[in-house]
Design a protein that fits this description.
- Chain B: It is found in: Cell membrane.
- Chain B: It is a multi-pass membrane protein.
- Chain B: This is Permease.
- The complex is a heterodimer of chains A (333) and B (338).
- Chain A is 41% helix and 17% strand.
- Chain A is an alpha/beta fold and 333 residues long.
- Chain A has two domains: 102 residues, no CATH class; 143 residues, Nucleic acid-binding proteins (OB fold (Dihydrolipoamide Acetyltransferase, E2P), Beta Barrel), CATH 2.40.50.
- Chain A has a five-stranded mixed barrel.
- The longest helix of chain A is centred in the first third of the chain and has 30 residues.
- Chain B is mostly helical and 338 residues long.
- Chain B has one domain.
- Chain B is built from 17 helices and no strands.
- In chain B, α3 packs antiparallel against α11, α5 packs across α7 and α15 runs antiparallel to α17.
- Chain B is globular and about 60 Å long.
- Classes of the chains: A alpha/beta (333), B mainly alpha (338).
- Chains A and B meet through α1, α2, α3, α4 and α5 of A and α3, α10, α11, α12 and α13 of B.
């Protein structure tokens, strides 16, 4: 019986320590402001609350350990079930499984996601692909996948046609310099259905400004607008910042300015970007943070039509406080 | 149980052994792995704690007879009840397994509990909103996700009802042959009698809740961490281009997206955003397969299910839901998307 309660106490202490460890890891990440490397701001509150829960459980485990130590018999028999396994090897294995993330969390530096992960996750260079456009994803080179995607797009167009007028594709309209397009012309240039309405409205605003600065808050939404209505927005000056990302196929004079868009946590973050063409491109290293000013135009990359910037100015900038961008739920409201 | 874990681990890691060798050569691998691994654990913590707490509260404050009175006796009603329980308790899959285990031990028929496990992570308001937001341009994806998930859960539930009834060990301890859990079952009943016979003061009940919750946290936590580890390895090790290159034919792409969902093990509240990033590369039907199969069955929750149910039941569940989702997603695409 002596041995039994000794091993019980060891287990309770171990569990208490692990629980404290996780609570402390969360506190540490919050204190160092690095929690944003792992989870989106809207999840932060819940993670902080769980730190409190973990800590409460830890305190309880220590309390139980003390009770075992001073020999108070367990009057609440409910922990019956969880009498730890007698195998020491098994216990070591299980506890090391818990200690592993703790060790990683405390010992290794927190890093932001960059080029290395972007190449694994596959970058999106044409963010309007979600809107049934026949344009294929930037990251997928094979023609079969494209061919397969095409009938699906037609199909869903057909089914949505029964509910609403079919969305026309943007018409390229060239105006005399200084001329103001009529409302009718504008609607032909920026057609929309229920889902692209906010983008069309935004595009009309962008159309009247010569210089488009892409803000952090609605980064993805702005890229999507540029891509959706690319035929009428080419020639605009666009300013955006991000980190440098390269693929072999881009050659020496091109790279991508990219940002990771995160929904809940890094596991679901996806890189989005804009292709940059610049003669001195090779001066900028992978993952370096830059601000690019350039003229928007169209090009093809891996058999897809994408938008790109012919850069005339590139500036190195310090990495922003929050390296990631998040979906903007206020966009268009 | 540990054996099963080991074998699954071997199978899963064995397939990518050559990649594992590459990992060590890539200097960015360790930091990337850390970011993925820690982020999955952190994101899952609130949900698993909520589930564990909820389960402990059920254990301490709700008696078996209440649970038994509340669950419908009629199998069809029971299956419907199980598949719509997510509307009332929108827990995500990490939180669900401990709750369902508790409910089954308290006398809820196993097939209803299992239906809740597979339907709950999809048929709930949170996931519907997330899917609708991710596919703003194509709301039919959100509708068909809910519809197909409902259909698959109901049919799976009815099949399980038949199968489990013909089994003499129905809703018995989910661990025939696993001595540890068997003990658990017995011990549990003893303790339960104690708890109710004795004067269960509020303080005792509170302490008992905490005790249950932290014990269960460790039981579920090990599967979560192991699942997060595998998921992080795969996400940092395999590139999406390699993955996307595989899915080319109609049926194959559905199968592929299901396997992809299984491997990714992302929470059902955020998987729609991942799926949306594949629009244009994969057909709507295969995205649907991804969105329905993933929350029902993935690495993380298979490990958790194995801790609770017999291996045979888990394998049957994977097979049944897998087949139904495959057929269902192909049919939905033929009938509604074209």
């Amino acid at each position: 019986m002596e041995n039994d309660s000794r091993s019980r106490m060891l287990h309770q202490l171990m569990r208490g320590l692990i629980l404290t460890g996780f609570a402390m890891l969360i506190v540490y990440l919050v204190k160092t402001d690095n929690i944003g490397y792992y989870i989106a701001p809207r999840m932060e509150l819940y993670v902080k609350l769980s730190a409190i829960g973990l800590y409460a459980a830890a305190v309880y485990q220590f309390y139980e350990a003390i009770q075992t130590w001073i020999g108070r018999k367990r009057e609440m028999q409910c922990d019956c079930s969880h009498d730890p396994s007698p195998s020491a090897a098994k216990n070591t294995l299980i506890y090391s499984l818990f200690l592993f993330p703790l060790a990683l969390g405390f010992l290794l530096p927190d890093t932001t996601m960059g080029s290395a992960l972007a190449s694994k996750k596959g970058i999106t260079l044409s963010s309007s692909q979600q809107f049934n456009t026949p344009v294929n994803a930037g990251g997928v080179p094979n023609a079969e996948a494209k061919a397969e995607a095409a009938p699906m797009n037609e199909g869903s167009d057909a089914s949505s046609a029964s509910r609403q007028p079919e969305t026309a594709s943007p018409v390229r309209i060239e105006l005399e310099p200084g001329a103001v397009p009529t409302g009718e012309q504008l609607n032909a240039m920026f057609p929309a259905d229920t889902y692209t309405e906010t983008y069309a409205e935004h595009a009309k605003k962008l159309y009247f400004s010569e210089r488009i600065e892409i803000p952090e808050k609605s980064f993805i939404e702005n890229l999507t607008t540029l891509d959706l209505y690319r035929v009428n927005l080419t020639g605009k000056t666009v300013v955006l910042s991000g980190f440098v990302y390269r693929e072999e196929e881009m050659g020496k004079e091109r790279f991508v300015v990219s940002r990771f868009a995160m929904n809940c946590c890094s596991a679901d973050a996806m890189p989005y970007g804009l292709m940059i063409d610049y003669p001195g491109a090779s001066r900028y290293a992978d993952d370096e943070w830059i601000q690019v000013t350039g003229k928007m135009d169209l090009t093809t990359y891996k058999d897809n039509e994408i938008i790109y910037l012919k850069a005339n100015k590139i500036e190195k900038i310090p990495a922003p406080e929050s390296p990631y961008v998040y979906p903007d739920f206020d966009f268009g409201f | 149980m540990i054996c099963c874990l080991g074998i699954i681990g071997l199978i899963l890691t064995g397939t990518s052994l050559s990649e594992l060798l590459d990992f060590s050569l890539d200097p960015a691998f360790i930091p990337s792995f850390k970011t993925m691994f820690i982020s999955i654990i952190l994101e899952a913590f609130p949900f698993i704690l909520l589930g564990v707490l909820f389960s402990a509260l059920l254990q301490v404050f709700v008696s078996d007879s209440v649970i038994q009175r509340f669950t419908p006796k009629n199998p069809v009603a029971g299956v419907l009840f199980g598949s719509l329980l997510g509307l009332l308790f929108p827990l995500c899959e990490c939180g669900m397994v401990p709750v369902v285990r508790r409910l089954i031990r308290k006398g809820m028929p196993a097939y209803i509990g299992i239906v809740y496990i597979i339907a709950g992570p999809i048929l709930n308001p949170v996931v519907y909103t997330a899917t609708w937001t991710a596919f703003r341009t194509r709301p039919e994806i959100a509708y068909s996700r809910m519809g197909l998930a409902f259909g698959v859960s109901v049919i799976t539930g009815l099949i399980l009802y038949k199968v489990i009834r013909s089994n003499p060990l129905k809703q018995a301890s989910p661990a025939t042959g696993v001595i540890h859990s068997h003990d658990h079952h017995h011990g549990h009943h003893h303790s339960h009698d104690h708890g109710h016979a004795g004067t269960a003061s509020v303080k005792n009940r509170f302490a008992s809740t905490l005790s249950h919750a932290s014990d269960e946290f460790f039981e579920m936590g090990k599967y979560l961490i192991f699942g997060a580890l595998l998921t992080a390895l795969i996400q940092t090790g395999l590139s999406r281009d390699t993955l996307a290159g595989v899915g080319e034919q109609p049926v194959l792409s559905n199968l592929f997206m299901m396997a992809f969902a299984f491997v990714l093990s992302i929470c059902s509240t955020s998987d729609a955003f991942i799926a949306a990033s594949f629009t244009g590369t994969f057909s709507a039907g295969s995205l649907l397969a991804f969105l329905v199969f993933g929350p029902m069955i993935d690495i993380k929750n298979t490990l958790m299910l194995l801790s609770t149910f017999r291996t045979k039941i888990v394998l049957a569940l994977i097979f049944i839901t897998g087949t139904l989702v495959l057929i269902g997603s192909i049919l939905t695409e033929r009938l509604f998307f074209s």
